[in-house]
Design a protein that fits this description.
Structural class of chain A: mainly beta
Number of domains of chain B: 1
Number of strands of chain A: 12
CATH architecture of chain A: Sandwich
Oligomer: heterodimer
Mean pLDDT of chain B: 92
Strand content of chain A: over 45%
Radius of gyration of chain A: 14 Å
Number of strands of chain B: 11
Order of helices and strands of chain B: EEEEEEEEEEE
Number of helices of chain A: 0
CATH superfamily of chain B: Immunoglobulins
Largest sheet of chain A: 6 strands, mixed
CATH class of chain B: Mainly Beta
Low-confidence stretches of chain A: none
Chain lengths: ~110, ~110
Amino acid sequence: AQSVTQLDSQVPVFEEAPVELRCNYSSSVSVYLFWYVQYPNQGLQLLLKYLSGSTLVKGINGFEAEFNKSQTSFHLRKPSVHISDTAEYFCAVRIQGGSEKLVFGKGTKLTVNP
Amino acid sequence: GAGVSQSPSNKVTEKGKDVELRCDPISGHTALYWYRQSLGQGLEFLIYFQGNSAPDKSGLPSDRFSAERTGGSVSTLTIQRTQQEDSAVYLCASSLVAGGGFFGPGTRLTVL
């Protein structure tokens, strides 16, 4: 069965600093990868996804992620964060050709301080 | 509507009562998913619909949980004889093709 590990439960950063949120997955078969953001008291919003092709994926709000198959990672990055990026970020994986379900990591709470 | 909607937004019920949670997916989306989000367990998959059939219901935690989808659109998640451990936010998502989904705002269920 596949699993997702988000190594940092909380990441505090200052405004305009770069940030990287780490995500590693475990799967015996090929996967699709996703990052979602959840603002307080709201549902999940898709930031970006990797299905195939270029391993560097650009998403909304200036975020990007790089799929690294050899390291089974899909880290999320933003070169300069804003206060409004404060939210919880979830990495998720779905196996190719199998169940449609997403398996989520435990989430990383990003807090951007002035 | 433009997005996935869920009702009610909040539901408080007494232990032992039955509850029904509703999901209206984005029009035309054939795939529909239910997830549960709780502090202790994070985000857990419950069930997946393709059209009106459920090819994957492996995440339903017990036989107290059931779900149906009618007309390839609205879905209802029913929890019978609710227990305190059922307290969570229940999230619905829909998608047109494979590749994640658009999530609704969720229903916060509190079982007293």
